């Protein structure tokens, strides 16, 4: 999606946030949630596949970064995500 962005910053922002769960996950990251299971506990109605796809999309659009260490994966907002 990133290469489809145009010059209007407002339209770009709306394109990046157009998925149903993106804004909710960004809010969760602001509140300190960083792990897949923390997102699931906050939103049990969110399926694993949808959560995974949304996180991948957010990472592809550089809204978040994924940090993997040992057996743990944490997600962080990037400057762009903030």
What this model shows, in words?
The chain has helices at 9-16, 22-30, 36-42, 48-60, and strands at residues 64-69, 72-77. Strand 1 and strand 2 (72-77) form a beta hairpin. The model has no long low-confidence stretch (mean pLDDT 88). With 82 residues, the chain is of the alpha+beta class. It has a two-stranded antiparallel sheet with strand order 1-2. The chain is globular, with a radius of gyration of 13 Å. The chain has 4 helices and 2 strands; from the N terminus they run H-H-H-H-E-E.
Query: Can you list the strand order of the major beta sheet?
Result: 1-2
What's the mean pLDDT score? 88
Kindly state the number of beta strands: 2
Described by strand count, sense and barrel closure, the largest sheet is: 2 strands, antiparallel
Percent of residues in helical segments?
40-55%
Approximately how much beta-strand content do the residues carry?
Answer: 5-15%
Could you tell me the radius of gyration in angstroms? 13 Å
Number of helices: 4
Query: What structural class do the secondary elements suggest?
Result: alpha+beta
End-to-end C-alpha gap: 19 Å
Shape: globular
């Amino acid at each position: 999606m990133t290469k489809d962005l145009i010059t209007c910053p407002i339209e770009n922002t709306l394109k990046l946030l157009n998925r149903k769960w993106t804004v909710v996950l960004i809010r969760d990251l602001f509140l300190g949630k960083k792990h897949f299971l923390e997102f699931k506990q906050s939103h049990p109605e969110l399926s694993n596949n949808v959560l995974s796809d949304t996180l991948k999309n957010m990472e592809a659009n550089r809204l978040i970064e994924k940090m993997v260490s040992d057996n743990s994966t944490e997600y962080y907002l990037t400057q762009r995500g903030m």
